Amino acid sequence: MIKKKKKLNFRKVISCIIILFIFMIITININKKNKEKELTILINNEFVETIHKVIIDEGENIYFSKEDIQKIFDETIYYNEAEKELITTYNTHVALLKINEEYAVIDDENIKLNGNLQEIDKRIYLPIKDLQKVYDIELEYTKENNRIIIDSLLKEKREGYISKKTKLHEKKGFFDGKTLENLIIGEKIFILEDNGKYRKIRTSIGNIGYIKSKKISDEKIVRENVKYEKQEISLYENYSNIFGIYDNISIDSNKLNVVSPTFFYIDTDSKVLDKTTSTTATYSVYKNWTDSNGLQIMPGVTNTESVSSTLLTFSQRSQAINSLKDLVIKHNYLGINIKFDSIDDINSFYRFLLELYPRFKRENLKVAITLNDSNLEKNRLENVVDYIFDD
User: Fold this and answer.
1) 384 and 237 in a common domain
2) Is the confidence at residue 1, as pLDDT, over 60?
3) Which of 235, 260, 308, 358 has the fewest CB atoms within 10 Å of its CB?
4) What is the structure's pLDDT at 278?
């Protein structure tokens, strides 16, 4: 009897060891599978493929290549190899990053970064989590399914909560496809589309599928679409000379009606000269006349020095742009009309426009350009100014 009991106990021990061993193998395989799960990127609820590998470091800093940032956010992104610095613009934001530096200039403020601009495998990589403000996005990385979720802050966002335990299905209807995820009561979800009895939703880990509408509660819009509408404009060139004597005129009240006397000049050392008050009495008469006739002043700015000497570097351009912006705000003008007579460095001039427009747009100021120089390409200007005037 004792021998039989010993045999039984031994078998039990062996069985337990075998079960434990199998369990360990299964656990290791599951963990391995999760580790090897391919990275997916969801931008505005669409899966995208990047040109180059996305890098995630131990601190979960996420790096996108310059080429991918160019493809997704900023087609005019610029890297200066000589200075090891990168300039990127988007919507109302401007940023300057330098290789391996822990601070960046974002919207004219020094901001400490968690990551930094890096050169990896002969490619330039940007720390995108640090640039959420620049690209107007919110970003989340979910380890559970190795997924980066990026949402534009300029697009509508609707959310709700699961009111009854349910499953997220690949398709809607009777043949609803495979189950993507089990959802529990109280779980927050994001609503993408209404489909009658069904809603197309996204879960917190980025799975997209369908559930029945009745299983969602507390639906609400937490963010509206941001729209930028451009009002039609009329330029009264014949009234843009401050020294004229004018009668009252009739205007189209549905348009922005503007005059554009040249008040500002970019001079040596990238300084902006303000000639608004150089003839105070004349200016006061002119300003009163424009106000009484429903005309807004969009002053012209031109250059007294060459573009190559005053707008060559980021710091020179920033100095001139911020001086112009402050003057326009000070005098309560509609915006600015760029009327350069000579452009000896076309690339620096385009960079000037690219870096000026977001700063002015952030202050709700309009930007126009008068085509004085035949080297300017209209198609390159259309997205970096509000209005284009022919000379």
Assistant:
1) yes
2) no
3) 308
4) 64
| End residue of a domain, out of 201, 223, 245 | 223
pLDDT computed for residue 32 by the predictor:
46
Domain that holds residue 295: 233-390
| Beta carbons within 8 Å of 341's beta carbon, 6+ residues apart | 302, 303, 372, 373
253 in a structural domain? yes
- Span 15-28, pLDDT tens digits: 656 666 655 655 55
Phi first, then psi: give them for residue 103, nearest 5 degrees: -120, 145
Question: Would you call 73 helix, strand, or coil by DSSP?
Answer: coil
Which of 149, 137, 145, 129 is CA-nearest to residue 202? 149
Q: What is the rounded CA–CA span in Å between residue 368 and residue 273?
A: 19
Same domain for 271 and 333? yes
Residue in this structure with the two tokens 């974002």, named with its chain if needed:
106
Two tokens, residue 306: 């060459």
**Residue range 50-101, pLDDT digits in tens:** 999 999 999 899 999 999 999 999 999 999 999 999 999 999 999 999 999 9
Give the residue ranges of DSSP H helices in the chain: 2-36, 66-72, 280-292, 307-310, 314-330, 346-362, 378-381
